[in-house]
Amino acid sequence: MTPIAFFTDDLALIPEYASPGLADTLGKPITVADFAKRTGNLPLSAFETDKGELVLETHPRYNLNGHCAFVRGTIHSAATA
User: Fold this and answer.
1) What is the percentage of the chain residues whose pLDDT exceeds 70?
2) pLDDT digits 0-9 by tens, 6-41
3) Handedness of CA 46, 71, 65, 36 (dihedral sign)
4) Which of 34, 49, 58, 81 could form a disulfide with 42 if both were Cys (CB 3.0 to 4.6 A apart)?
5) Whole-prediction pTM
6) Residues near 42 by beta carbon (within 8 Å), at least 6 away in sequence
7) Residue 76 carries which DSSP code?
8) Rounded distance between C-alpha atoms, residue 73 and residue 49, angstroms
9) For residues 14 and 74, is the Cβ–Cβ distance under 8 A?
10) Alpha carbons 14 and 46: distance in angstroms, whole number
């Protein structure tokens, strides 16, 4: 996966895979802002896979055993909605 260094909170994707707490987002557009809100405003990262998919992932604070939340899917464009 390739890290995406700079991205805005209006970047959206349509998840094909998600962590259990975000299963209701599958197949529906979710923005970085919505993902952050749903996961407790934890620090997050964005990555692009070798297949061109977008991955958003949280980084739990102060808990090395914490689980990250994630969504992975295709980038959503308002033009294709």
Assistant:
1) 88
2) 889 999 999 999 998 899 999 999 999 999 999 888
3) positive
4) 58
5) 0.83
6) 36, 58, 59, 60, 61, 69
7) P
8) 10
9) yes
10) 14
Residue with more model confidence, 27 or 63: 27
Contacts 24+ apart (CB under 8 A), 16-25: 16/53, 16/72, 16/73, 16/74, 17/70, 17/71, 17/72, 17/73, 18/70, 18/71, 18/72, 19/67, 19/68, 19/69, 19/70, 19/71, 21/69, 22/69, 22/70, 22/71, 25/71
Which band of pLDDT confidence, cut at 50, 70 and 90, is reported for residue 65?
A: low
Query: Residue 56 to residues 27, 66, 78: CA-CA distances in angstroms?
Result: 15, 16, 19
